[in-house]
Amino acid sequence: MIRARFTAIAALALALSAGPAFAQAQENARLTAQKADAVRGVDELAKMAQEMVDSVFSFGELGFQEVETSKYLTGVLEKNGFTITRGQSGIPTAWVATFGSGKPGIALGSDIDGIPQSSQKPGVAYKDPIVEGAPGHGEGHNTGVPLNIVAAIAVKRVMEREKLPGTIMLWPGVAEELVASKAWFIRDGMFKDVDVTLFTHVGNNLNVSWGAGGGNGLVSVEYTFEGETAHSAGAPWRGRSAADAV
Questions:
Q1: How far is 85 from 96, CA to CA, in rounded Å?
Q2: Distance of alpha carbon 209 from alpha carbon 161, whole angstroms
Q3: Which pTM does this prediction carry?
Q4: Residues 6+ apart with CB under 8 A from 8
Q5: 89: which DSSP letter?
Q6: Residue 217: its pLDDT value, please?
Q7: CB 150 within 8 A of CB 49
Q8: Coil, strand or helix: which one is 71?
Q9: Which residues lie closer than 8 Å to 65 by C-beta, 6 or more apart?
């Protein structure tokens, strides 16, 4: 009994002497356990992920025409307790789904549009379209938002159980193949309360990266140039090519 009490007192003294270090260790252990719970939650939703990936693949809608895709994905999110704002930035197929409040604000994004004439039966290693000439998902845009939804649901469950503050936001890259929607989202301040954005896209060997990527400065802009015609043999130096100017 005396030895047990001594051990307990010694442990308490050690904890008090450790101060902030001990508190930090406890916090690290708590975060490790919460992360493990989230990972288990994702594994438990594997079947749901497969169904969503296959469903979005079957829609295969072009940019600005992702009507059934958006209807389906927002329906899944609403059933799982997320609040949906439709028609984001005046784009009919754009939406934002949120859960929670306060900081940190974490945004999960991924593209949803298909590619022209890419209709293809799944699991076939040669060209075999579902509908000849129809669009399809040739770049994996059927996978990202479903995987984000599964991750968001798993984290949401941990947040509810642990009463954790924070906001989860999910959003789709509408008409990404047309260089559209993201610039409008930024213009309208969609990310002003976001602390970090995690974007999902099929890559080589399941790689991940962070920071700025190639093409982030690409914006759709229309230019008008006026040229000047000239006789190519008599006075070619007078010519001004609009194509060269572009």
A1: 5
A2: 30
A3: 0.79
A4: none
A5: G
A6: 59
A7: yes
A8: helix
A9: 93, 113
